[in-house]
Amino acid sequence: MDIRMITAGAAFAAAMLAGGPGLAGETKANQVKVGSARVAIDHEALSTEAGARDLLARMDAAARKACGGDARRHSSWKSTPDLARRAFETCRQEAVARAVAELGSPRLAAAHAAGPREGLAR
Question: What is the pTM of this model?
Fold first, then answer.
């Protein structure tokens, strides 16, 4: 069993902290680390689709935590809820995609590309 960190860093963090209006046009140079969370990885479990989906669900939960949890609790929610929602979702998606790419598991990558299944949040 391996333990990996899900690191959330996204261009939105700078925009959110500065009260900026947009996500588009931000570059990686503007990204900042906003959080991280640990995920236990059983490499044997990645040999099955169910194992890959389970890991993907746990990675998603870790990314949500690393990206600040619920966007509705962010100070910008009252004034710009759409921006806050997009920013948190972008952070989560980017963190999961980065973690999937770093692991290099074809089965995990396929599960991620296939998208969520009923009963699994992504």
Answer: 0.70
